[in-house]
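Researcher: Please translate sequence to structure tokens.
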Amino acid sequence: MNKILIVGEQPLICNLLSRELTQEEYQVIALTDTTLLWKQILGFQPELVLLDLDLHTCDCWQLLCEIKDKQPELAVLVYAHTGLASIIKLKQAIEVAAPTKRLSAASNS
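Model: Translation complete:
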């Protein structure tokens, strides 16, 4: 798993997550405008979507249901940002959700 789409309305948080994940060698797009979600999903074709629980312009759960209805194979992690500790835990969750990245990195060694 190399492509991650971050969906959140707080640019600072999205940029921080994007930077952290890019350092881990993921391809990342951070999206702060949820109206562009399907354009990014269809164009970027992420293997994982990180969805902010605290969206203000739309309902996170409704968006999650829409994603899973239209793209059931697409992995989605819902996150809640509560500080630096939550970013560390989110990175750990991504590592668990993204075993193919570790496997492909090990096979390239």
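Researcher: Any highlights?
Model: Residues 6 and 50 are 5 Å apart (CA to CA).
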